[in-house]
Amino acid sequence: MHTPAHGADHHPKKRSRAHHAHDDVPERDAGVFNRAEPLAPFEAGTSVPPDIAHETTAAPQLGLVDADLIAERLRGRFASFLTGEGRDVIEARCRDALQEHTGWLVSQITREVALTLETEMTAWVREAVEEEIARRSGHA
């Protein structure tokens, strides 16, 4: 390990990895999983710790609500959304995607047509020049 030659070279917040303060302290226990004292027991018949149990008793009717009823309400909300505002959002996104794709297609087709015309135009100019040369040499 590198030890700085001068105190100013050593960063004050850096700790050396060679020595830790807790290395000199012998290990007193094997860890939290080997505790000698038992953990605080739950009250008889409860499935949550006592300090949380009093908070959950405020809404007992919530357990009585039928899951199918909740699912049906959600289905209704989804259907309402998808026939109203949701449909407008979907249509707008489709329009945007269609315009974007149409723009890309126009660019691709324009590029391909330009390349094809460039090749064809060279042939057309060559033919026109040859025709003009033939016409002038025949009338000369």
UniProtKB/TrEMBL annotation:
One matching Pfam family: DUF2486
Renumbered residue ranges of the record's region Disordered: 1-22
Segments of skewed composition (Basic residues): 11-20
Annotated protein name in UniProt: DUF2486 family protein
Organism whose genome encodes this protein: Paraburkholderia bryophila
Organism lineage: Bacteria, Pseudomonadati, Pseudomonadota, Betaproteobacteria, Burkholderiales
